[in-house]
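User: Predict 3-hydroxyisobutyrate dehydrogenase's structure from this.
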Amino acid sequence: MMSMAICRVRAALLSLSNHKSSLISSSSSSSSSSSSIRSFSSSQFESVGFIGLGNMGSRMVTNLVKAGYNVTVHDINCNAMKKFSDMGVPTKETPFEVAEASDVVITMLPSSSHVFDVFTGPKGLLQGGNLLRPWLLIDSSTIDPQTSRKLSVTVSKCNLKGKKDNLVIPVMLDAPVSGGVLAAEAGTLTFMVGGSEEAFLAAKPLFLSMGKNTIYCGKAGNGSAAKICNNLAMAISMLGVSEALALGQSLGISASTLTKVFNSSSARCWSSDSYNPVPGVMEGAPSSRNYDGGFASKLMAKDLNLAAESAKDIGKKCPLTSHALEMLVLTSCLLKKIN
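Assistant:
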């Protein structure tokens, strides 16, 4: 089923790419295949829908608007929508209404269940049955690869409303991000993308309006797989850096001095040089803002649980994942009691 869906998407996109390539070659025989892909993408991204206006999504939308895209937004939080409405950005009451107004729809949501509901639930993106207005659906949420692949197959069974060049079926990309709130605000996110490579190339200018790196990871679901593996490595390194800094301070070394050692030695990592967990060591890091705007422990626990469940599904043992998850769940519970 998955292979048939992939073939169907690839055939449609290749047809579209070839059609546009022939138009370009008549005016410029020296154009490359990548530039022909970009040429059709610009006209297919006139209206961008965005669903999910949380810490990450709101900042991504702001950068899309700055880049000149016509953006329409939706969120279940009315206050989040009002912020953009006051900026002149159109808002819609349901995901389906966003889809009806958009060529491309991006979702940035908390969990797999939220994504599945926005796509397939009442008034969801796919409410119109097998007819869709947007030709491209991009999910930037951090979810399990299995859900990404199921939704990709479901989307590939739909048809497009109206003719979009030679493209007759919509396409889905799983494109989670790395970099956190700071990178979302600065427009320096990294996108890890799974799905059709032709669609990835077409969407690259859109990604680069919100980030600075785009990495094609392969088939549908591979972007989500890359993301949970990235967050697994980051969570374990953050726990290690935090424990080492705590030990160092107990032994009489200041956190700032020990951080300089780490960042000049083999312990250097993102958790030490960009997201240092000790208050006052790194200006701009969440730890120096009373942890405001940081990545919540409960969300990291959620991501580690995705990794643990994915490992379980394929019979892979990941002991460090289990230990890290246990520590983060405990931390989340303690923070909940304190607050």
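The first strand starts at residue 47 and ends at 51.
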